[in-house]
Amino acid sequence: MGGDTVVTMSLKFMPTDITVHVGDTVTWKNGETIGHTITSGEWGMVNESTGLRGEQTPDGMFDHALSPKGQDGDTFSFTFDKAGTYLYYCQPHLTMNAKVIVEP
Ligand SMILES: [Cu+2]
Fold it and tell me: How many domains does the chain have?
Protein backbone atom coordinates (compact mmCIF):
# COMPACT_ATOMS: atom_id res chain seq x y z
CA MET A 1 0.00 0.00 0.00
CA GLY A 2 1.40 3.31 -1.04
CA GLY A 3 0.16 6.64 -2.06
CA ASP A 4 1.03 10.19 -2.66
CA THR A 5 0.35 13.65 -1.34
CA VAL A 6 -1.01 16.68 -3.16
CA VAL A 7 -0.70 20.13 -1.61
CA THR A 8 -2.78 23.16 -2.54
CA MET A 9 -0.63 26.23 -3.08
CA SER A 10 -1.11 29.49 -4.97
CA LEU A 11 -4.49 28.32 -6.31
CA LYS A 12 -2.98 25.18 -7.82
CA PHE A 13 -2.83 21.51 -6.95
CA MET A 14 0.82 20.51 -6.64
CA PRO A 15 1.70 18.31 -8.29
CA THR A 16 -1.12 18.76 -10.77
CA ASP A 17 -1.05 15.21 -12.07
CA ILE A 18 0.01 12.22 -10.05
CA THR A 19 0.26 8.52 -10.80
CA VAL A 20 -0.46 5.88 -8.16
CA HIS A 21 -1.48 2.23 -8.16
CA VAL A 22 -4.71 0.44 -7.36
CA GLY A 23 -5.19 0.35 -3.59
CA ASP A 24 -3.11 3.46 -2.99
CA THR A 25 -4.36 6.37 -0.93
CA VAL A 26 -3.97 9.95 -2.06
CA THR A 27 -3.89 12.62 0.63
CA TRP A 28 -4.59 16.26 -0.07
CA LYS A 29 -3.25 18.92 2.29
CA ASN A 30 -4.16 22.57 2.30
CA GLY A 31 -0.97 24.59 2.04
CA GLU A 32 -2.60 27.98 2.33
CA THR A 33 -5.00 29.85 4.55
CA ILE A 34 -8.03 29.81 2.27
CA GLY A 35 -10.49 26.98 1.79
CA HIS A 36 -10.66 24.73 -1.27
CA THR A 37 -12.70 21.78 -2.41
CA ILE A 38 -11.51 18.43 -3.66
CA THR A 39 -14.28 17.60 -6.10
CA SER A 40 -14.18 14.62 -8.46
CA GLY A 41 -15.45 15.06 -11.97
CA GLU A 42 -14.66 16.08 -15.50
CA TRP A 43 -13.32 19.53 -16.28
CA GLY A 44 -12.32 21.05 -19.57
CA MET A 45 -12.31 24.02 -21.94
CA VAL A 46 -9.25 25.40 -20.15
CA ASN A 47 -8.22 28.80 -21.49
CA GLU A 48 -4.58 28.56 -22.58
CA SER A 49 -3.61 32.05 -21.46
CA THR A 50 -5.51 32.33 -18.19
CA GLY A 51 -5.60 28.67 -17.11
CA LEU A 52 -9.27 29.04 -16.21
CA ARG A 53 -11.49 26.07 -16.97
CA GLY A 54 -14.69 26.65 -18.88
CA GLU A 55 -16.64 23.62 -17.77
CA GLN A 56 -16.92 21.22 -14.89
CA THR A 57 -19.15 18.25 -14.11
CA PRO A 58 -19.01 16.70 -10.64
CA ASP A 59 -19.38 12.92 -10.63
CA GLY A 60 -20.03 12.38 -6.92
CA MET A 61 -17.10 10.07 -6.22
CA PHE A 62 -15.71 12.54 -3.68
CA ASP A 63 -16.37 16.15 -2.77
CA HIS A 64 -14.57 17.45 0.29
CA ALA A 65 -14.42 20.99 1.61
CA LEU A 66 -10.79 21.43 2.59
CA SER A 67 -10.42 23.76 5.57
CA PRO A 68 -7.73 26.43 5.61
CA LYS A 69 -4.28 25.25 6.66
CA GLY A 70 -4.03 24.55 10.38
CA GLN A 71 -7.75 24.02 10.95
CA ASP A 72 -9.66 20.76 11.43
CA GLY A 73 -10.34 19.22 8.05
CA ASP A 74 -7.33 20.67 6.28
CA THR A 75 -6.44 17.23 4.92
CA PHE A 76 -8.49 14.70 2.96
CA SER A 77 -7.66 11.17 1.89
CA PHE A 78 -9.19 8.90 -0.73
CA THR A 79 -8.26 5.35 -1.67
CA PHE A 80 -8.48 4.40 -5.34
CA ASP A 81 -9.65 0.83 -5.82
CA LYS A 82 -9.90 0.76 -9.61
CA ALA A 83 -7.47 1.65 -12.39
CA GLY A 84 -8.32 4.68 -14.48
CA THR A 85 -7.85 8.40 -14.87
CA TYR A 86 -9.70 10.47 -12.32
CA LEU A 87 -10.14 14.17 -12.90
CA TYR A 88 -10.92 16.53 -10.05
CA TYR A 89 -11.00 20.25 -9.36
CA CYS A 90 -11.68 22.95 -6.79
CA GLN A 91 -15.18 24.38 -7.17
CA PRO A 92 -14.52 28.07 -6.38
CA HIS A 93 -11.12 28.33 -8.08
CA LEU A 94 -11.18 27.81 -11.84
CA THR A 95 -7.39 27.47 -12.05
CA MET A 96 -7.40 24.36 -9.86
CA ASN A 97 -7.76 21.43 -12.26
CA ALA A 98 -5.88 18.17 -11.80
CA LYS A 99 -5.96 14.42 -12.13
CA VAL A 100 -5.00 11.18 -10.50
CA ILE A 101 -3.87 8.37 -12.78
CA VAL A 102 -4.37 4.98 -11.14
CA GLU A 103 -2.38 2.16 -12.69
CA PRO A 104 -3.14 -1.54 -12.17
CU1 LIG B 1 -9.50 26.22 -4.39
Answer: 1
CATH for 57: 2.60.40.420
State in Å: Cα 30 to ligand 1 middle. 9
Ligand 1 centroid, distance to 31 Cα (angstroms): 11
pTM above 0.90, yes or no: yes
Write out the residue range of the structural domain in which residue 25 sits.
3-103
CA of 84 to the centre of ligand 1 (A): 24
Write the DSSP assignment of 6-71 as a string of letters.
EEEETTEEESSEEEEETT-EEEEEE-SSS-EEEEEEEEE---TTT---SEEEEEEEEEEEEPPTTS
CA 58 – ligand 1 centroid, Å: 15
Which residues place a Cβ less than 5 A from the ion ligand 1?
Answer: 36, 90, 93, 96
Q: What is the pLDDT of residues 11-68, one digit of tens each?
A: 999 999 999 999 999 999 999 999 999 999 999 999 999 999 999 999 999 999 999 9
